[in-house]
Specification:
The protein has 5 helices and 11 strands, in the order αββαβαββαβββββαβ. It is α+β, with helices and mostly antiparallel strands.
């Protein structure tokens, strides 16, 4: 996709006006249409649906545009997760470097091991959903959740309120694929999930190094990268309950 000089200038001007937040917009008839960013986070963008409707009335949407303040024109992990869902290229503007790059709308799948933490998109519940989908072909519903929901007594407990509806039952022993629900630090709710892998910690949906141990689990710690580790004494002390999907009950 070739971007006209005047279109680039319009994108740069919008990025400057929105800095240090991300700007966002659309390309229609090769022209840049400014949109309002209604995302809660300063490091994300969400196009106002009203602006999207207005742009669609002007013609076919040719690309989705946003800026990376003090960043590069390469897509972030969050960008990669979204880019394959819209069927049009993404244009990313690095500001104040004034660099623009066009990226194809390619599907992206974050790895289970060593994935970046992004609340709601790649967090401790997301890895449970992705693991069950990729390793077991079991699809689990997603649930809306605010960051640090577990610290408020008024928040619904993401895990204990929903595990039964997703086909899980509480059990008193461990087998491969079980979910271990934990309380990490003082909290009103169960706030972390571990996936029990058992003997060697291997995965079938992606390459994984063989690990010698008989009590391995996979999890995604808050604000850190996902990893495998031993289900040892510390995690056992934090365990609140163990749940198993009904289809895995022997």
């Amino acid at each position: 996709m070739y971007i006209l000089k005047e279109t680039k200038e319009a994108i740069f001007n919008h990025a400057a006006a929105c800095y240090p937040r991300e700007c966002c917009g659309l390309l229609v008839n090769r022209e840049y249409i400014e949109c309002r960013n209604i995302a809660d986070s300063a490091n994300e963008f969400k196009i106002d649906p009203r602006d999207l409707v207005k742009a669609e009335k002007l013609g076919k949407i040719e690309a989705i545009v946003h800026s990376h303040p003090d960043g590069s024109s390469l897509p972030s992990t969050f960008d990669k997760l979204q880019m394959g869902k819209h069927g049009v290229p993404w244009v990313i503007c690095a500001y104040p470097e004034l660099d623009i790059a066009v990226h194809k709308d390619q599907a992206y799948q974050a790895p289970l091991i060593n994935r970046e933490y992004i609340h709601r998109a790649l967090d401790c519940y997301s890895i449970v959903r992705d693991y069950y989908s990729r390793e077991l072909n079991i699809e689990l519903d997603n649930f809306e959740r605010q960051d640090l929901w577990w610290e408020s007594a008024d928040s619904e407990d993401l895990y204990t309120a929903n595990f039964k509806s997703q086909g899980f039952v509480e059990v008193d022993n461990l087998q491969r694929h079980d979910i271990i629900l934990c309380r990490v630090q003082p909290t009103h709710h169960v706030n972390h999930a571990l996936i029990y892998l058992g003997d060697d910690g291997s995965l079938t949906s992606e390459q994984s190094e063989h690990v010698v141990n008989n009590h391995l689990m996979l999890h995604h710690p808050y604000l850190r990268r996902s990893r495998r580790e031993i289900y040892g004494n510390i995690w056992q002390e934090r365990t609140a309950l163990i749940i198993r999907h009904k289809s895995l009950i022997k």
